[in-house]
Model the fold of this input.
Amino acid sequence: MFESDFERNLFALRQDKLRQIEALGQSAYPNSFAATHSIPEVRAVYDDATAERLEGDRSNVTVAGRIMAIRLQGKAGFAQLQQNGVRLQIYVRKDAVGEQAFELYKLLDLGDHIGVSGYLFRTRTGELTIHVETITFLTKAMLALPEKYHGLGDVELRYRQRYADLFMNGVLNEGTPAEIHVRDVFIKRAKVLAALRKFFDSRGFVEVETPMMQPIAGGAAARPFTTHHNALDIDLFLRIAPELYLKRLVVGGIDRVYEINRNFRNEGISTQHNPEFTMLEFYQAYTNYWDLMDLTEECIKFVAQEVNGTTIAQFHGKEIDLGKWERLSMREAIIKWWWDEAGPGPTVQTFANSSSFLSWLDSVIGPVRPEHKAFLFHAALLAPQDQLRRGGSLGKAIADVFEAVAEPHLIQPTIIYDFPLAVSPLSKQKPDEPEWVERFEFYIGGFELGNAFSELNDPEEQRKRFEQQIAQRLRGDDEAHQMDEDYVRALAYGLPPTGGEGIGVDRLTMILTGASSIRDVILFPLLRPRKTTTTEGEQSSRE
RNA sequence: GAGCUCGUAGCUCAGCUGGUAGAGCAUCGCCCUUUUAAGGCGCUGGUCCUGGGUUCGAAUCCCAGCGAGCUCACCA
Done:
């Protein structure tokens, strides 16, 4: 618990102060406090009140808060109390509160919680302030607060000790870096969740919770975490997606269903990836992916309005309009965003078959050397080229080329539709192009936010796709699907034509709050546990 | 998993090309009854991330490790 002897000594000092506070007749850890207002309420009601009005009316208030600034001046003093991210100044004079209460005031430290009663007035500089008449001690801060002006800046400490981050950086002071307004971010995140529920509830969707511990981790291409149930003596997987369970529910007759909850994927960590992340998935019977495109645009617009009151978002210094959407097929996107200086781009015919796609790739990559300015751009195309030469699937290669060529450009809201069958084991084929499926993903800010498709509902075809996935698994792809017999059985009872979609809630929150890292929208992001050299005393107190 | 950058007091940071560690806030003591990054005086507080190496001498240079941030890879 202690970072140093400094903290150990401070803790002891504060224990001593607590005893002195008790000697003044106050409880060290009282159980409750009855306030008449919250601090935000006081500010909302009286921020506009003039000094004259406050003097005439004598507005008495009782509030509680954490001391974030304290200034003693002999026989009087000022302090600022903070509650719910809002601050209010108090003024304590010895002749107003009495000898004992003033002794108590002198024993207060930054970070302590107190309650005060008094009347409102304005100081010489015009600041709304409580002229305190009684002080109630509530809780002592036994540790020193981080630097009061700059706040808590160390990113690692902010993530590891989010509690300190929240109370230190919950209020925007002048001089505080603009990206640090943590409290606001998480208030907005709560609004995002509320808005999503409002949107789907109002359209007749039923919110459900499906298993997060699953005997077969399906519904996405990812490596799962493994856990174990002792009584049943079975291994279970933390889910990588709720998809297969939600579709079972549609089979069961819940035509419109959604779930907002965590998924777990045993993969790397980055500014866009946390091993556990929050996903919204929803399914609607009797719709296809075209309908979902409309619904997606409406949903994102609605959430932006609810959360920010506007569809304009600022992200990475760019203005994004969540009300304006573009739709491109994957093939169109590659053609549109092809970098001309990298050589002649593809045409519609280029995507027709493996040989035409490979010969185009060869023609573009062939002449490029390391000193060529398009070298890095081409380097990203080497993997798909190599796959194709080894007889790999055309679809996978096209999807890879899309990611390299187009994805970074998709800053403004863009729907990319029609994906290769080879990378979409759960989607329905396009009736006129069986090598392509009715699937789209949408991108904002340069990364993927959602993935949707017309759900494959033919049990025989689904069994085949699972078998293909198993074959891939045997070839070493440990992200390929496993066979889920019960899911195939569910489909055999009849899944109506259904559209389904997943939206990354953390990433959506990033866009709406301007956060550049997913860790800034997750309260406790996964970090490597810190190795501490603990003393024996601490060890035992921890256990 | 790879590359780049960073790690100095509880916090925010300074410490040039190696000469043995500083400031502000916080803490502690004193003064101060409208201050507001309050102010004034004084005192504390450091295995300079860890371990090696080079050197007469390392916070500083080199190597390894640990932790973090960013970029890339994998994915949503």
